Amino acid sequence: MSTGSYRIVVEKLGRIARPVDEVRRQFGDMRHHEANRVHRAIKIKCLSDDGTTCRYVSELSLLGMTQRDETIMVRNPDGSLTNDIVAGTNAGTRITQTFRPDGDAATRRRRSYFAWMRRQTASSGS
Fold first, then answer.
1. 3-state secondary structure at position 32
2. Is CATH 3.30.530.20 the classification given to domain 2-117?
3. pLDDT tens per residue, range 66-86
4. Whole-structure pTM over 0.70, yes or no?
């Protein structure tokens, strides 16, 4: 058997009825996520945050199995966010989020997930 891999990309588009600067700020504030359990099913623990780069651990239960990931999130100069999962269940996954105004009081958000999947294939001659 030889191994191969392929990349899965999933994109989600959405509209949030809040101004773009507010949305960017809230989505990138992992200390707020940690302190206020913004996503009740996900435990967040910030390890470090210098204002540009935040390293955090997230933990959740999915189908009775615990998933624990360590992520490095970068707040990019254009207001987008890049999350690289560097250790854990989903290591190697990248999540990007971009935000753009939709009028004066709303935001269009694009979230993209990039993950590598491994597969087993039969090798020739075996």
1. helix
2. yes
3. 999 999 999 999 999 999 999
4. yes
